[in-house]
Amino acid sequence: MASDGKLTAWFDDLTRNDVPRVGGKNASLGELVRNLCERGVNVPPGFAITADAYWQFIEANNLKGVIGNALSELATGKASLAETGQKIRRVVVHGDWPADLASKIRETYRELSRRCGGEDIDVAVRSSATAEDLPDASFAGQQETFLNIRGEVALLDACRRCYASLFTDRAISYREAKGFDHLKVALSVGIQKMVRSDLGGAGVMFSIDTETGFDKVVGIDAAWGLGENVVQGAVDPDEYQVFKPLLVDGDVVPIIEKKRGEKARKLVYAANDAAPTRNVPTSKVERSSFVLGDDDILQLAHWACAIEDHYDTPMDMEWARDGQTGELFIVQARPETVQSRKALGTLKSYRMKRKGRRLVAGLSIGGAIVAGKVCMIRSPAEISQFEDGAVLVTETTDPDWVPIMKRAAAIVTDHGGRTSHAAIVSRELGLPAVVGTGHATELLHDEQEVTVSCAEGEEGFVYEGIGEFEVEDLNLEEIPKTRTKVMLNLANPAAAFRWWQLPADGVGLARMEFVVGNHIKVHPMALVRFESLRDDGARNRIAELTRNYTDKTEYFVDRLARGLARIAAAHHPKPVIVRMSDFKTNEYANLIGGAEFEPKEENPMLGFRGASRYYSPRYREGFALECRAIHRLRSDMGFRNVIVMIPFCRSTHEADRVLDVMAENGLRRGENGLEVYVMCEIPSNVVLAKSFAERFDGFSIGSNDLTQLTLGVDRDSDELAELFDEQDEAVKWMIRTVIEAAHHSGAKVGLCGQAPSDHPEFAAFLVKCGIDSMSVSPDSFIAVKRQVAAAEKGGSKAPSD
User: Fold this and answer.
1) Which end of the chain is more exposed for a tag (fewer CB within 10 A), N or C?
2) Is the dihedral of CA 443, 446, 448, 454 positive or negative?
3) Where are the alpha helices (DSSP H) in 530-649?
């Protein structure tokens, strides 16, 4: 777009096509104000000082020659990058404003103040480069932003400092690397009414999962105070995730994750004109509280969807909440430039094979694994000490760190969340990073050999030594289609989104006990009977874990529901079969507080497990918490695709008792479309298949337990390993028989187990029997899919409807 010579432009008059005039940031703000405000998205008003104004300032102070000469000395090696940047910034900051330009800025600022009902209102002064946010180059974050600027003198000074920030060392080196002519990139300045988030909160929001590219969630990071701390990774923020497809249903609350961050400090207003903001410690109440309530989270998620819909691409947004009025605002929006540009159809899978002692853990950024030596750097000034290909370990990063980060194999930081600078740049560079570890700089040391793993879910780990791992490139376009459904076995909510691209037919087995053991860690009965616990150590640990829950049992229900929600969301609206808890008594006893509630058994594998627990006085109240979590997952959060499965149900009498207890706790088969399956893992399930089919909607064959009990072989016995064979004729007779009986009764039947992954002929046998589905681990999915396709092509009969 040609220049119109105007020195200022209101956001209302700008569109995303105005990047040459006002830069990417201001053009996007104009697009928001013009098009999204009418859809209910709040955006603070403001105006842009145009690129023409920048050039007028440069020419009025005869700076082109000074800048050109300084850059020539840099190019010929006569001056260092630091010397060049400092020289240019100094002359820009000391430049004089042309009278007409200064007058126009003052006049427009006064008009903005009048429109906002005040005089000399406080504003945010943001840099907006004219080459910003291009598909192949992102200048975002390289130039400065100044907050809480009040008055005409302070405003003009802040604008001058924005101009100078076009020549920070990092900005100069970035343009050099990208081949941009320094004297053809101009700077626009955005002047935007401040949102009093210093009294409220602020953060960052993405309309896509930043780690996996899963496009059906909105991720929100939040901290108290002004938002710069979140952007810079100076605090560990709250994290929220919302499932987008269910937002259209106003009767449900599809918030699938709420993780409380430490939020140790907040950026607030300061009285000092020279330093208008300052960081202060947060209170104990603030650290232990969520920044956003559910209504605020949903409001932001709705806005994220509206903005994404308008731009027709995943978006990266900044938001703020005014502490005086409680209002929410979007203060910036730009297209997301990492996950949305990745080619779909391919998936790189990393898997640890051998790992050393875990040293530190934090948030996992990226899905890769790398090994190397630690290089501890405290400041960008120490860049000369960094060794190429080392694991960069530091407290936090900002844009000045980019030249070092580009040379690293992996990055580990003490502070920061998923939207911190370290996380964002690591994604752009394709590096694995573990951020927000808390104390990596204290526990790791220079030259230490470590393995950085970001392939194990939401949590990333640094292991001692050079571990063994494998990498596999999966071509999803080569996966054949099959009549027989091939589903996934999943347990870890943190890794659920990792496999969203696989064309699975749903989840055939989601293990509740994994969520309990890893994300809850407390025995449910220890929460029900907390006041009478005799173990003081367990009481103290439970008190710490549940400190933000008035009702201890709510801790269990809330965390279980949200953990399962991530698995249900990853494959919605396809079926997700959640097996109710199937710990053995010795495993339950290992949960915090569990020893007081579990009997000691000689053979827990055949003891007090599965269905028998659910109606027993020993565990009935604990099972009620499981039911509450499933009810919340389906009814309150909206995941009606969840199917409940009952494990180790020995008799039809037991089935009736369990179904009655479930109904008492809000889970009545058939109500709101609820289906209930039973595990087929005991010979009685096969012998009485017709009777079980009258009580359940489907069977899932647990081939390991069924083999064990059919052959009378302990599956964990080394001495009997040769006898444990899922392809034994007796086991195959059991499987064939239950499939025929289930189909005769109109029930579905699937199998969850490793056998189809390990033995192609077993997969062919299942296809020939007409099984409806197989459920396998994600790393086996493609192989099994191919085996099933080959078996179907070979003339096996199609599965029954």
Assistant:
1) C
2) positive
3) 536-545, 552-570, 585-589, 611-614, 620-631
- Catalytic residue, chosen from 162, 627, 752, 769, is 752
Contacts from 254-258 at CB under 8 Å and sequence distance 24+?
254/565, 254/569, 254/637, 254/638, 254/639, 255/294, 255/297, 255/298, 255/562, 255/637, 256/217, 256/562, 256/565, 256/566, 256/569, 256/637, 257/562, 257/565, 257/566, 258/290, 258/297, 258/558, 258/562
The answer to whether the bond into 573 is cis (omega within 30° of 0) is yes
Using alpha carbons, list the distances in angstroms from residue 310 to 31, 34, 104, 328, 329: 9, 11, 33, 19, 17
Which of 363, 362, 399, 405 minimizes the C-alpha distance to 386? 405
Residue with tokens 């938001």: 319
Task: Look at strands 576-579 and 507-511 and give their pairing.
Answer: parallel
Name residue 699's beta-bridge partners: 678, 749
Of 143-147, 273-277, 542-546, 654-658, the range with the lowest mean pLDDT is 273-277
> pLDDT digit string (tens) for 435-473?
999 999 999 999 999 999 998 877 899 999 999 998 887
Question: Average per-residue pLDDT in the chain?
Answer: 91
Helices 81-93 and 63-75, packing angle to 10 deg: 170
240-262 confidence digits (pLDDT tens) = 999 999 999 989 999 999 999 99
3-state secondary structure 8-48: EEEHHHCCHHHHHHHHHHHHHHHHHHHHCHHHCCCCCCEEE
Are the CB atoms for 723 and 711 separated by under 8 Å? yes
406 pLDDT higher than 50: yes
Residue 283 has what DSSP assignment?
P
CB-count burial class (<10 Å; 0-12, 13-18, 19+) for 222: buried
Query: For residues 22 and 187, what is the distance between their CA atoms, to the nearest angstrom?
Result: 8
614-623 pLDDT, tens per residue? 999 999 999 9
Residue holding tokens 């844009």? 399
Phi-psi region of 672 (alpha: psi -120 to 50; beta: other; left: phi over 0): left
Specify the residue for token string 């401040």. 194
- Reply yes or no on whether the pLDDT at 177 is more than 80: no
d(Cα 752, Cα 770) in Å, to the nearest integer?
A: 15
CB of 505 within 8 A of CB of 574? Answer: yes
Contacts of 511 (CB under 8 A, 6+ apart): 489, 490, 491, 579, 582
Q: What torsion, rounded to 10 degrees, do the Cα atoms 98, 104, 108, 114 define?
A: 110
From residue 17, give the alpha-carbon distance in Å to each of 22, 29, 537, 795. 10, 12, 62, 58
- The predicted model gives 550-559 an average pLDDT of 96
Which whole-number Å values give the CA distances from 730 to 605, 706, 737, 773, in the listed order? 21, 10, 11, 21
Q: 């709510």: which residue's tokens?
A: 554
Average pLDDT over residues 134-150: 67
Distance CA 428, CA 137 (A): 10
State the average pLDDT over residues 153-182: 88
752 is catalytic: yes
Q: Which of 365, 366, 360, 458 lies closest to 414 in space, CA to CA?
A: 360
Q: Which of 435, 451, 426 is nearest to 369 (CA)?
A: 451
The 10 Å Cβ neighbour count of residue 588 is 26
Structural element, H or E, at residue 160: helix 152-164
Confidence of residue 133 (pLDDT cuts 50, 70, 90): very low
What is the structure's pLDDT at 183? 87
Question: Which two structure tokens, joined as six digits, stand for 408?
Answer: 């690293």
- Cα–Cα distances in angstroms (integers) from residue 200 to residues 126, 224, 532, in the given order: 21, 6, 40
Alpha-carbon distance of 530 to 541, in angstroms, equals: 11
Q: Which of 302, 421, 523, 571 is catalytic?
A: 421
